[in-house]
Amino acid sequence: MEYTVLIYQAEEGGFWAEVPSLLGCYSQGETIEETMKNIKEAIEAHLALKEEKEEVPVREEFVIGRVKVEASATG
Where residue 67 sits, what CATH number does that domain have? Predict the structure, then answer.
């Protein structure tokens, strides 16, 4: 199975990641590579916990976009 992973830069340094289709599945790391390794482990643990309790989502559909807002519009 493949899951979409969103990676963000953390304010305090490093990165953190989430899996939109697995509510509560997060991880972090000092580099993107470490974060990807850690989120893979988090996904595996998340799936193991959910396996007997409920159906695990296999696919997700969403769009990621960016919108630029002029500084004067924000206040």
Answer: 3.30.160.250
Residue 3 above 80 pLDDT? yes
Give the pair of three-digit tokens for residue 9.
Answer: 């830069």
Residue 1 lies in a domain: no
For residue 15, the model assigns a pLDDT of 97
How far CA 72 is from CA of 5, 24, 32, 67, in Å, comes to 33, 36, 34, 15
CA dist., res. 66 & res. 4, Å (int) = 17
- 25-72 confidence digits (pLDDT tens): 999 999 999 999 999 999 999 988 876 666 665 556 767 777 888 877
List beta partners, residue 27. Answer: 17
pTM of the complete model: 0.73
Specify the DSSP class assigned to residue 57.
P
Per DSSP (E only), the strands in the chain are: 6-9, 15-18, 26-29
